[in-house]
Amino acid sequence: MLARPNRLTRGDDYRQVVRRGQRCGGARLVTSLLTTTDDRAPRFGFIISKQVGTAVVRNTVRRRLKAVCAEFRDTVPQGTDVVIRALPASAAADFAQLRADVARCLNRLAPGPDRS
């Protein structure tokens, strides 16, 4: 699971990443990434609207995405903020599909170690 230092918690931080960050989209997710010069652990945030499904479905998608990001936490550069917006198609996706989508976008936006 993601510890508090690895989570985005303020609305201003979310807005900044979504507006000024690089974007990578797919059928199930849209990933925004903003690299800063701050010397801190990477932070992740999730946007899952009611269009994705009921509260149970949204929480399932959110938990899966948190687990995926916890796997990639050590491969994302220091000072990076990542916001993942779940699209309605993510409700029908399993863990492996969500993991593949996140890995593809992180490899594209923040080149570094192979995340496959």
Main sheet overview: 4 strands, mixed
How many helical elements? 3
Helix content range: 25-40%
How many E strands? 4
Low-confidence stretches: none
Tell me the CATH architecture: 2-Layer Sandwich
The CATH topology corresponds to Ribosomal Protein S5, domain 2
Distance between the ends: 19 Å
Shape: globular
Radius of gyration: 13 Å
Which features does this protein show?
Ribosomal Protein S5, domain 2; globular; four-stranded mixed sheet; 116 residues; 4 strands; alpha+beta
Describe this structure in words.
This protein has 116 residues and is of the alpha+beta class. The mean pLDDT is 92. A four-stranded mixed sheet has the order 1-2-4-3, sandwiched between helices. The chain has one domain: Ribosomal Protein S5, domain 2 (2-Layer Sandwich), CATH 3.30.230. Helix 2 packs across helix 3. It contains three helices and four strands; from the N terminus they run αβββαβα.
Gist of the model:
The chain is an alpha+beta fold and 116 residues long. Helices cover 37% and strands 21% of the residues. The protein has helices at 11-20, 55-72, 95-109; strands at 22-25, 29-35, 43-48, 80-86.
